[in-house]
Design a protein that fits this description.
Radius of gyration: 15 Å
Number of strands: 7
Number of helices: 4
Strand order of the largest sheet: 1-2-3-4-5-7-6
Oligomer: single chain
Distance between the termini: 25 Å
């Protein structure tokens, strides 16, 4: 089955929908780790609004049949030809369909000048680690951050 997705750039006018999608998509991880400091689930609306207006920060709705099924945010560093993905989310009802992997691969084509892509995730979330490895990302050896007992962040990169 060929997964068809498209991207639509989000604006500050989409703030409420973005916040709602954050809450729905990151709720399970928040309930598992109860991370009040770094969880996107707890990210204040004002912080998301600020990220929407930052130079070189782009939010895109991930769409399937013109329906918003997820979000991917790209933070560009044009001097270094690097982009950070933070966050990528797929609404729970659309997960496990290959949409995140397809989105990771497709977003690279929207930014052909970017040569290095970076992202991070919770080390203990094997499904997420597998997703990024499957999409061609490599773990940066020796780079890890402890958030709390049982929750560490690992970092990935991909050269294109």
């Amino acid at each position: 089955m060929c997964i068809q997705i498209s991207f639509k750039q989000a604006t500050v006018q989409n703030l409420e929908e973005i916040v709602t999608m954050y809450r729905k998509s990151f709720k399970k991880l928040y309930e598992k780790y109860h991370d009040d400091t770094t969880s996107p689930y707890k990210e204040p609306k004002e912080v998301i609004e600020n990220k929407l207006s930052l130079k070189n920060s782009y939010y895109f709705f991930i769409q399937q049949k013109k329906k918003n099924v997820g979000i991917i945010r790209i933070l560009l560093d044009n001097k270094e030809n690097t982009a950070k993905i933070s966050p990528i989310l797929i609404l729970p009802e659309f997960q496990n369909q290959g949409l995140a992997q397809k989105s990771l691969i497709q977003i690279e084509k929207k930014f052909p000048d970017i040569k290095t892509w970076v992202l991070d995730t919770i080390k203990q979330e094997k499904k997420l680690v597998h997703l990024y490895l499957k999409a061609g990302y490599q773990i940066i050896d020796g780079k890890e951050s402890r958030i709390q007992d049982g929750m560490n962040i690992i970092y990935f990169y991909k050269k294109v």
